[in-house]
Design a protein that fits this description.
about 75% helix, about 120 residues, single chain, mainly alpha
Length: about 120
């Protein structure tokens, strides 16, 4: 495993730990919403993750429908990190290139739909 892969994996793990701590213990307002008075595509994700921590799956979906695709990608990346460490492979880099780079149009569409739903729900 090369140096860039190790850096990516460490960044992912540290970012995950930091995100869980912030979501669980701090209330942070959306800067985009504060500046422009409209929700961003990610508005409601913190509340959605808090709802997931409380096992309230319906509320999590209401706060932001992107919660489940994000959770699935996060779980899969965690699995790939385990495989990378165990078998000395480069699955995470390949996953990033295959999913995020090749499917950027789908990701942009999901963000647009999330924005529309946030405006409708007045999140």
């Amino acid at each position: 495993m090369n140096k860039n892969n190790k850096l990516l994996i460490c960044s992912f793990l540290l970012g995950t730990i930091f995100s869980i701590i912030v979501i669980k213990f701090f209330h942070i307002n959306c800067l985009f919403k504060e500046l422009f008075q409209i929700p961003c595509p990610g508005c409601g994700l913190t509340r959605a993750f808090r709802a997931l921590f409380d096992l309230n799956f319906k509320s999590a979906l209401y706060y932001n429908y992107l919660i489940y695709p994000i959770l699935i990608v996060w779980l899969y990346c965690t699995f790939l990190i385990y495989k990378d460490f165990r078998y000395k492979e480069n699955n995470l880099i390949n996953f990033y290139n295959n999913i995020f780079v090749k499917n950027y149009k789908l990701i942009i569409l999901m963000l647009i739909v999330s924005e529309i739903l946030n405006l409708i729900h007045k999140i």
